[in-house]
Amino acid sequence: MSERVETWKTVESKEIADCRIFKVREDHSKNGAKEGKFYVIENPDWVNVVALTKNYDVVLIEQFRHGTGEVTLEIPGGMIDAGEDPEAAARRELREETGYTAERFVLIGRSRPNPAIQGNWIYHYAAIDAEQTGEADFDEHESVATSLCAVMEIPRLIKTGAITHSLVLAALQFFSFFIMKV
Questions:
Q1: Under CATH, what is the fold of the domain 46-180?
Q2: How many CA atoms lie within 13 A of 179 on its CB side?
Q3: CB count, 10 Å around CB of 47?
Q4: 9 pairs with which residues across the strands?
Q5: 114 pLDDT exceeds 90?
Q6: Measured between alpha carbons, how far is 164 from 72 in angstroms, rounded to an integer?
Q7: Is 98 left (phi over 0), alpha (psi -120 to 50) or beta?
Q8: Quick one: which of 51, 167, 155 has its CA closest to 111?
Q9: Of 149, 124, 144, 115, the residue nearest 41 (C-alpha)
Q10: Which residues pair with 107 in a beta bridge?
Q11: What pLDDT is stored for residue 1 in this prediction?
């Protein structure tokens, strides 16, 4: 790339909505003579977990998503609580949503969910030798069904469109690099 990308400077910023799990901010920004209003969704950072059992199964969950009005096939994950370490959040989310735990957690990557309108990170973890040690303990607005899938079946689930959540797809890509030692 030969051209330098110009950045915008925020001149004024104000919160316009507090929606419990995220806030919406309106920024008035300038780039030289250009100026405009931009909207940013402020989220906490998130985690998700590719949990692999000793039998090489991946722990998957199904849950209803209000944005699409559909049940989606995903991996466990959620928001990092204020002051919480990302790995601690990954351990908590895996246990709460599935009842599975693991001794070994590995940070396999992190990515930006949607940098056009969000500033947060999602941390992708692998939980190695995960095993069910208890019952799920959902948040009050969650209803999750847990299942196991052979790790070798994951590419088929992606290719057939059974897994469509982009943050889950990112985690599974990082996981493929991790298991291939790329």
A1: Nucleoside Triphosphate Pyrophosphohydrolase (3.90.79)
A2: 16
A3: 29
A4: 30
A5: yes
A6: 8
A7: alpha
A8: 167
A9: 115
A10: 125
A11: 57
